[in-house]
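Case study 2.
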Amino acid sequence: MKSLGIGLIGTGYMGKCHALAWNAVKTVFGDVERPRLVHLAEANADLADKRASEFGFEKATADWRTLIADPEVDVVSVTTPNQFHAEMAIAALEAGKHVWCEKPMAPAYADAERMLNTARAAGKVAVLGYNYIQNPVMRHIKALIEEGAIGAVNHIRVEMDEDFMADPDAFFYWKSELSAGYGALDDFAVHPLSLLWYLFGHVEAVITDMVKPYGSRPLKEGGRRDVENHDAANVLMRVGRGISAVLMANRAAWGRKGRIALQIFGSKGSIAYDQERMNEFELYQAEGRGSEQGFRKILAGPAHLPYDRFIPAPGHGLGFNDLKIIECRELIRAISGEPSSIVTFEDGLRIEKSVHAMAQSFHERRWIEIA
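Prediction:
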């Protein structure tokens, strides 16, 4: 397969993460062609030039449409705020480009459907940035569940908490706008939903409550503005094969920085995982003498592939950006027609459908079945 020409739209937190992945994927894995960093787009020309120089891109533009029209670009990374995903991803697909779009697909479900339909019509690979499923520890947890290490799973609890919106005096910004989505549910609760999908299949039914810890926030120019979406949510769910599950999400949780706390209970044991300690998990197996039973901590190491591609020694640990490099390699494999483990627009739309069902449940105060 020839070297892919890469276009990057947006250079904030996730834009830099994509750039790091494109730069490192050949060095880490060796079994893919080194991508060519062709074109970068930002909101203004000066910033675009600066980021292109920093990230290693050949060209820069203040007009993302110019990037999409570039015949040298084969894959477009879309890392802009949520409300721009649909327009940019659809334009890239219609121009014959593959797309790597950050989650969620779009605030409006109809836009997410258009994204999927466009990808189908274009016949191009279109995937979403759910890199937590790429963690070697998560892959091993999946293997343990599938081989019956904890028996038949009967209940799951998952929490996602961060505190970047915990300060009541923090200024209002775009993530509190209705145009950005429902709030905690589609801003970041889609990440634990991606883990549930990866491990057990899609959500089948939900009932939801959402809250606004703070009804308004100050504006930099003075005055206040009402918060238009919800920073915390609690969801009762049934997931693949009717398993009982609970999801709690809060982006106003003081002290929590990047927590996805996952507990999986089975007939013969349990598994516990916390994203803030992403290089370890705990396994309890109800076997042997009761006097010696207990959770044991398992540290990530070369035995948990593809950890070995990064570090030859156990216990040293991977990071968030390393998971993005793994995801980048899975995307390249998908483009090459090889089997890959990645969230396509097909599966991504089902995750989006789950989120919209949760919001519908909140407004209608009832269980919603997801077809």
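The CA atoms of residues 156 and 264 lie 5 Å apart.
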